């Protein structure tokens, strides 16, 4: 077995941090914790973890929460990966933190094992999608938009759509792989491609959509 | 970029000079000396100082005004504001208060709804006209009129210039002043002048006509000029004096009024949140303490409360209530409460209810209920509405079953799922994924497909 993955947990609730620490399995080693934006940026620069489990809503800083932490650690993005963790269901929170550079989004209702899996996946350079995030992606990119070229940033390819649909239906990566007769590695490649599109696309539905949800 | 004009905390008298220096990027000494020099010029500096003292906010006040638009929960907005660049979520910086989650709309000045109620018709139409080169048209028309009058005079008609010129000046001035105001201010002024509704507008216009007529009579020569100038000067002096004396009180009164109004709004908001928390969260917490012995009850209560609170906090205001997604979520919530298994609903797209959808919802209920009853564990519901078709997937992680194994007298699956969907032009498929069962309910809407 390889060395445990070094992670930093950033959340403003001490009870939640300790609960999460207890729930994570042995593949993961929590090296530090932080509760505010400033603290998080300092701690992450000091500890240089492989993965940061990051709450979307954090006190401090300029009010930007988790996204601000990611932006503040932009110099480390090559070595440190961010996994957003939130109770929030609101689309704009999720999309903001993903577009700031986080490599995945899981909700706090996930079990310790599921969060551990997501951390391992993110540490390996892949993306961690929850069913809800997959639903957001389908909502934003449209279920019919099919890219003719895989590199097209504003549309999903047919295969990526299939993968997103299955994840939204509650399939794990392994189940998606089995369903589509492809390897897990291929599923991960597709998901990473979708993540990249989600981060870089200037698709106006994506920005519009995030804005719309905030307007009454 | 100039620094904002505010009165800083380190001050000699009222901080006007240091604020002005920071704003203009000059040294404080220069500003102070020019103030003194100006004061020697028959008191102009003193007047300017008093004027700025009254109107320039202190640094504290300015900061408070800025904070009013800041909502710590609005992560996306704050992030976009602080890190505006190509990267972040593309949420454009919003002018003014951010319309956002629950608490936000109440922070807007309360004159907004009234202004909106005043009817967008007349004013927006004028605004539109102005945008479409209406301004140029107005100038052109005025020039044509002036030219026509001039030609008429050349042709021998007697144009009463001394009557028309002042009138024209007044109208032009009024229009210019009006155009300087932006939309919200215009609405604010209309609102405060009581010019909301037809009656108010008539009153306002009549009043203005009277004032203009009065001035007009004054200058049109029925009173001799040598009497008029001293009279006018005396009137102005009295008015200016009264204005100067009253101005601080008026400003103070106005600020107090605004402060009190926003305070009251905040209080109402707080009371609403408190009432909500009391009705829901506190009650649930009390129940949880009562039932602490039963783990299942506690989980169920917590889950139901979470769902309810979430709905209240993150409710998508844009979506209409009673639509397909709403109904599916309600079904899921009901079964979650009844069986205590967590049900996650992910929805893409939405549509208003139809008879077909009623059938789909009944079938979904049956499928979710089956999953909760027989499989347990967490259940995923995925709804996808595209132009042309609607699909619902209900997935559990139970032992699974084969349709062929179900006894023929059990009507649940065959009648409620398969036949019901068939009757409404859809289909139901049940599949054992190897790790739980998945029910797929599909509806086709060929008539909608043409739109896409």
How do the strands and helices of this protein lay out in sequence?
The complex is a heterodimer of chains A (216) and B (452).
Chain A: E1 5-10, H1 14-23, E2 28-34, H2 37-47, E3 51-55, H3 65-72, E4 81-86, H4 91-100, E5 105-107, H5 112-123, H6 131-141, H7 158-168, H8 173-180, H9 184-200, H10 204-212
Parallel strand pairs in A: 1-2, 1-3, 3-4, 4-5
Helix pairs in contact in A: 2-3, 3-4, 4-9, 6-7, 7-9, 8-9
Chain B: H1 16-24, H2 28-40, H3 44-55, H4 59-68, H5 75-82, H6 111-117, H7 121-154, H8 161-180, H9 183-192, H10 197-219, H11 225-290, H12 295-314, H13 324-339, E1 343-348, H14 355-375, E2 379-386, E3 389-395, H15 411-423, E4 426-432, E5 437-444, H16 446-449
Parallel strand pairs in B: 1-2
Antiparallel strand pairs in B: 2-3, 3-5, 4-5
Q: What would your notes on this structure say?
A:
The complex is a heterodimer of chains A (216) and B (452). Helices cover 50% and strands 12% of the residues of chain A. Chain A is of the alpha/beta class and 216 residues long. Chain A has two domains: 1-128, Rossmann fold (3-Layer(aba) Sandwich); 129-216, Winged helix-like DNA-binding domain superfamily/Winged helix DNA-binding domain (Arc Repressor Mutant, subunit A). The mean pLDDT of chain A is 82. Residues 85-126 of chain B have low confidence and may be disordered. Chain B starts with 15 loop residues before the first helix and ends with a helix. Chain B has a domain at 320-449: Histidine kinase-like ATPase, C-terminal domain (Heat Shock Protein 90, 2-Layer Sandwich), CATH 3.30.565. Chains A and B meet through helix 3, helix 4, helix 6, helix 8 and helix 10 of A and helix 5, strand 1 and strand 2 of B.
């Amino acid at each position: 077995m390889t060395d445990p993955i070094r992670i930093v947990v950033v959340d403003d609730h001490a009870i939640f941090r300790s609960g999460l620490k207890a729930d994570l399995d042995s593949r993961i080693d929590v090296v530090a914790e932080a509760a505010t934006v400033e603290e998080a940026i300092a701690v992450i620069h000091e500890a240089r973890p492989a993965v940061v489990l990051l709450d979307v809503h954090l006190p401090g800083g300029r009010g930007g929460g988790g996204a601000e932490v990611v932006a503040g650690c932009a110099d480390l993005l090559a070595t440190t990966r961010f996994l957003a963790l939130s109770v929030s269901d609101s689309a704009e929170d999720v999309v903001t933190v993903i577009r700031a550079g986080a490599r995945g989004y899981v909700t706090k209702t996930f079990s310790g094992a599921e969060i551990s899996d997501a951390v391992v996946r993110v540490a390996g350079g892949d993306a961690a999608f929850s069913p809800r995030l997959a639903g957001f992606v389908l909502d934003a990119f449209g279920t019919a938009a099919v890219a003719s070229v895989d590199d097209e940033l504003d549309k999903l390819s047919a295969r990526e759509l299939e993968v997103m649909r299955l994840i939204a239906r509650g399939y794990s990566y392994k189940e998606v792989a089995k369903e589509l007769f492809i390897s897990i590695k291929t599923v991960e490649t597709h998901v990473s491609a979708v993540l990249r599109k989600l981060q870089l696309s200037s698709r106006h539905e994506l920005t519009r959509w995030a804005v719309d949800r905030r307007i009454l | 970029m100039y620094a904002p004009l505010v009165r800083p905390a380190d001050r000699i008298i009222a901080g006007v000079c240091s604020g002005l220096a920071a704003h203009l990027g000059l040294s404080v000494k220069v500003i102070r000396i020019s103030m003194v020099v100006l004061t020697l010029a028959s008191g102009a500096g003193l007047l300017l100082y008093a004027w700025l003292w009254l109107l320039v906010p202190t640094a504290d006040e300015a900061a408070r005004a800025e904070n009013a638009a800041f909502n710590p929960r609005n992560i996306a907005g704050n992030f976009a504001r602080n890190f505006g660049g190509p990267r972040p979520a593309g949420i454009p910086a919003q002018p003014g208060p951010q319309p956002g989650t629950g608490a936000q709309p109440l922070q807007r000045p309360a004159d907004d709804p009234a202004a909106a109620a005043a009817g967008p018709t007349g004013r927006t139409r004028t605004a539109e006209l102005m945008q479409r080169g209406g301004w140029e048209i107005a100038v052109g028309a005025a020039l044509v009129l002036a030219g026509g009058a001039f030609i008429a005079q050349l042709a021998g008609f007697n144009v009463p210039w001394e009557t028309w010129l002042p009138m024209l000046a007044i109208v032009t001035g009024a229009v210019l002043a009006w155009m300087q105001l932006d939309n919200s201010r215009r609405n604010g002024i209309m609102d405060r002048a009581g010019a909301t509704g037809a009656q108010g507008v008539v009153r306002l216009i009549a009043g203005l006509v009277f004032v203009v007529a009065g001035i007009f009579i004054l200058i049109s020569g029925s009173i001799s000029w040598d009497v008029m100038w001293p009279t006018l000067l005396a009137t102005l002096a009295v008015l200016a004096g009264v204005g100067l004396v009253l101005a601080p009180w008026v400003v103070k009164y106005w600020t107090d009024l605004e402060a009190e109004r926003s305070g009251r709004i905040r209080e109402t908001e707080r009371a609403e949140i408190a009432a909500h928390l009391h009705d829901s969260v506190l009650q649930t917490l009390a129940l949880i303490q009562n039932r602490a012995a039963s783990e299942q009850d506690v989980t169920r209560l917590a889950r139901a409360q979470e769902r309810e609170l979430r709905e209240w906090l993150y409710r998508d205001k844009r979506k209409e209530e009673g639509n397909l997604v709403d109904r599916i979520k309600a079904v899921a919530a009901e079964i979650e409460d009844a069986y205590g298994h967590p049900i996650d609903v992910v929805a893409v797209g939405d549509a208003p209810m139809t008879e077909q959808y009623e059938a789909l919802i009944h079938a979904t209920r049956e499928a979710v209920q089956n999953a909760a009853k027989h499989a347990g564990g967490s259940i995923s519901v995925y709804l996808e509405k595209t132009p042309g078709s609607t699909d619902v997937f209900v997935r559990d992680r139970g032992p699974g079953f084969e349709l062929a194994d179900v006894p023929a007298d059990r009507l649940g699956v065959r009648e409620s799922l398969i036949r019901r969907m068939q009757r409404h032009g859809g289909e139901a498929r049940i599949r054992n994924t190897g790790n739980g069962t998945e029910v797929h309910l599909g509806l086709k809407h060929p008539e909608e497909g043409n739109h896409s």
